Amino acid sequence: MIGALNARGRVLLAALVAILLAAPLVADRYLVSVLILIFYFTFVGQAWNLMMGFAGQLSLGHALYVGLGGYVSALLWLKFGIGPWLGVFAAVAVACAFGAAIGWLGFRFGIGGVYFALLTIAFAEFTRIAFDHIDYAGAAGGLFLRVDDDGRWWNLRGGPLLFYYLALALAAGAVVLTAWLSRTRLGYQWLAIREDEAAARALGINAFRAKMTAVLISSAMTAVGGVFTAFYNNNLFANRVFDINRSIELILAPVVGGLGKLQRRRGRHLRDHRTQRRRQDHAVQHDRRRVRARPGLDRLCRRAHRRRNAGRDLPPRHRPHLPDRAAVPGAERRG
Least enclosed by CB within 10 Å: which of 68, 163, 171, 294? Predict the structure, then answer.
């Protein structure tokens, strides 16, 4: 990703990283909280972008994985004392299991497009209703995490500064991972399936496996975001975390920014287009200068072109530069 940037781009990237690293040292708590939300939605937005922007599978129930990741990690922390750095693996496993079930039902029976989106919404709503009635998870009253004052960072117990750098690392990691996957064989398979699944199957691409991989990666990344939001907000309510409005919030950033696109790819394609256009203009100018240097060349070319095309639109017997078929000896036998 960095190798595709020129010297100016690398300088700008280094300056941006330095500014983001030093921002919480000079900014107030409100600005830091806004930046944390920006980084968080960048991370989950890229997770959704892998599934829809690259693989072409519309999901409107991604809040399901946020809620599962948050509830699993929070319950492990409250009930068993397992910290989030270990609980995130269990959260990812549970989210992947639900994602695999949704993907298998949708792809196995040919459910796609809007109907696949309805399937994801249905799973999110069923899970919301279930967690609203599970007393072990707080039911409708919500689940609250303990707030420790000793600042144990390994349990994600700290101030805004800890969550700021963690959110920044997650956002940067999601962008790098998406850029890397887009250039792999799997990424090209996703793009082929997104454009024309039937043609991709005809080329020998295992569409079912490629789409299932997209669902699993996307659900795993979104579950990590759920762990982050659970320990950052210190509370979970099923009617909020599983709500469809949360799913809409997750997809706003990639929809506005462009599905299946990264700034690096768009900038590189724009530079390539400009370079090609500049070369074409240079070739045209070079031809014009050559014609001006030899005034008679243009007239000779036009005269030869007229002679070559003279009578081409007329019937064969009336073309002035072709002999009549009957006048050619043996023409009938060869025809």
Answer: 294
pTM value?
0.76
274-303: per-residue pLDDT in tens? 555 565 555 556 555 555 555 555 566 566
**Of the candidates 136, 151, 130, 157, the residue with the CA atom closest to the CA atom of residue 75:** 136
108: which residues sit within 8 A by CB, 6+ positions away? 208
Quick check: 48 and 250 in contact, CB under 8 A? yes
Compute the distance between CA of residue 67 and CA of residue 71 in angstroms, rounded to an integer: 6
- Other Cβ atoms less than 10 A from the Cβ of 249: the count is 16
In the predicted structure, residue 247 carries a pLDDT above the cut 60: yes
Diameter over CA atoms, the chain: 108
Q: What is the pLDDT of residue 13?
A: 86
What is the DSSP pairing of strand 235-236 with strand 143-144?
A: antiparallel
Could you tell me the CA-to-CA distances from 282 to 75, 269, 279, 286 in Å, in that order?
Answer: 67, 20, 5, 6
Instruction: Assign residue 147 a region (left: φ > 0; alpha: ψ between -120 and 50; beta: otherwise).
Output: beta
CB of 227 closer than 8 Å to CB of 84: yes
**Long-range contact set of residues 263-268: C-beta below 8 Å, sequence gap at least 24:** 264/1, 264/4, 264/5, 264/179, 265/179, 265/182, 267/9, 268/4
Do residues 25 and 233 touch, judged by C-beta distance below 8 A?
Answer: no
CA distance 303 to 318: 21
